[in-house]
Write a structure and sequence with these properties.
This is Putative secreted protein with PEP-CTERM sorting signal. Keywords: Signal. This protein has 2 domains: 49 residues; 172 residues, no CATH class. It is 21% helix and 52% strand. The chain has 223 residues and is of the alpha+beta class. The two termini are 22 Å apart. It contains 4 helices and 9 strands; from the N terminus they run ααβαββββββββα.
Length: 223
């Protein structure tokens, strides 16, 4: 009888949890590195990088987007998943110069059996009134199902053209034309997708804790 009561209480309490508690935040991180053969001065200037040699410079681009598909607006466009209002972190190093920024923006994700695609852009403009799209493309066998960019994975590759990075700069003013692009192949590339969905044992511990709290509260009421 007591076990049935506990099970019933656990289920009812879990059902009463707010959606934010039952949500499934996801964090996607991609990284590429290699040598930039040639850079675009408009893109580099928009990132606030002024002391820069435009040829044959080592680069690293790390993109991270964190979001919750139960909270953040999202939809599929072809084979890509668009997510709005994501928490973004971008770190770009070229030569001895580094650009780093955190903020809100949108992310676009896609995955295949041996590839992963991540593009992010901040809502606010960067230097000189420019918006910038940052893209990492990872060519590595994925230890997750193709076509599901939210599935957990940890894949990496090294070698010639195992991925690529790209940055597209354009005017924040929609009435002003202009598109400037910069990109290079990567000799190292990786992707990590992590979901914070609680394990079954964690759900059980949560339920047990809720039941225990309820029982203690009832005993106190009786006394």
């Amino acid at each position: 009888m007591l076990k049935r009561l506990a099970r019933s209480l656990a289920l009812s309490l879990l059902a009463a949890l707010p959606l934010s508690t039952l949500a499934a935040p996801v964090s996607v991180t991609t990284h590429t590195s290699g040598t930039s053969a040639y850079g675009d001065w408009v893109v580099v200037d928009a990132l606030g990088i002024t002391n820069y040699d435009y040829r044959d410079q080592p680069f690293e681009l790390t993109l991270q987007s964190t979001f919750d598909t139960d909270v953040n607006t999202n939809f599929w466009w072809g084979d890509k998943l668009w997510i709005f209002g994501a928490d973004l972190t971008v770190t770009f190093r070229i030569g001895d110069e580094t650009f780093h920024k955190q903020g809100k923006g949108q992310a676009m994700l896609g995955s295949g059996s041996d590839s992963y695609y991540q593009q992010v852009s901040f809502y606010d403009s960067l230097g000189n009134g420019k918006l910038v799209d940052f893209t990492n493309y990872v060519m590595a066998p994925q230890n997750a199902a193709a076509g599901d960019p939210l599935a957990e994975r940890d894949a990496s590759a090294s070698g010639e053209r195992v991925g690529s990075m790209g940055m597209d700069a354009y005017n924040a003013n929609p009435d002003a034309n202009g598109l400037w692009m910069m990109g290079d192949y990567a000799t190292n590339a990786s992707v990590t997708v992590v979901s914070s969905v609680p394990e079954p044992s964690q759900w059980a511990m949560m339920a047990a804790g809720l039941v225990a709290a309820t029982v203690v509260a009832r005993r106190r009421q009786r006394t």
